[in-house]
């Protein structure tokens, strides 16, 4: 014979577990949002290089930043390309987006449809928060070289 008290305890535990799953995993678009602040630095021959102009590009848009600097971008499933230039020095780097914890919670709760929503909006993915672009030599503009030589 089934004990009604045991059945109701089990139902309460199942109910609370389900609610907890929704509250703590939720879809990534709710828990982490579609935007992310990233910081871009440039180096040349191992030394920091300032005032490089960089364009960040993914399938959600493009953004401009001077290094060292931060910019708010829209997250995406695909790579983030960064093209930087200062004087005669140029460089391009690509940074991969990686799935964040919200996307896995949404996969459990929302299944393939939930994952697809997070992938298409980009909210289930993050880029590295700090990115370094290694610039190609020459590291200084002609006017900087002249200025540095005159200071010696």
Structure report:
The protein has 152 residues and is α+β, with helices and mostly antiparallel strands. The chain has a single domain (25-136), classed as Immunoglobulin-like, CATH 2.60.40. The protein is built from four helices and ten strands. It has helices at residues 4-25, 28-31, 101-121, 142-151; strands at residues 35-44, 47-49, 53-58, 61-66, 69-74, 80-86, 89-95, 98-99, 125-126, 130-135. The strands form three sheets. Strands 1, 2, 5 and 10 form a four-stranded mixed beta sheet that branches. The protein has a four-stranded antiparallel beta sheet with strand order 4-3-6-7, with no helix packed on it. A two-stranded antiparallel ribbon has the order 8-9. Strand 1 and strand 2 (47-49) form a beta hairpin. Helix 1 (4-25) packs across helix 3 (101-121). The termini are far apart.
Briefly say what this structure is:
This protein has helices spanning 4-25, 28-31, 101-121, 142-151, and strands spanning 35-44, 47-49, 53-58, 61-66, 69-74, 80-86, 89-95, 98-99, 125-126, 130-135.
């Amino acid at each position: 014979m089934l004990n009604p008290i045991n059945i109701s305890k089990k139902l309460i535990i199942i109910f609370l577990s389900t609610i907890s799953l929704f509250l703590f995993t939720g879809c990534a678009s709710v828990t982490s949002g579609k935007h992310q602040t990233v910081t871009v630095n440039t180096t040349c021959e191992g030394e920091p290089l300032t005032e490089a102009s960089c364009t960040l590009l993914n399938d959600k848009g493009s953004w401009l930043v001077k290094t060292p600097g931060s910019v708010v971008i829209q997250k995406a499933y695909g790579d983030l390309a960064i093209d930087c230039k200062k004087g005669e020095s140029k460089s391009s780097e690509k940074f991969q987006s990686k799935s964040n914890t919200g996307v896995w919670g949404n996969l459990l709760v929302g299944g393939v449809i939930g994952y697809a929503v997070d992938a298409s909006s980009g909210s289930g993915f993050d880029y590295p928060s700090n990115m370094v672009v290694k610039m190609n030599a020459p590291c200084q503009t002609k006017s900087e070289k002249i200025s540095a030589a005159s200071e010696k």
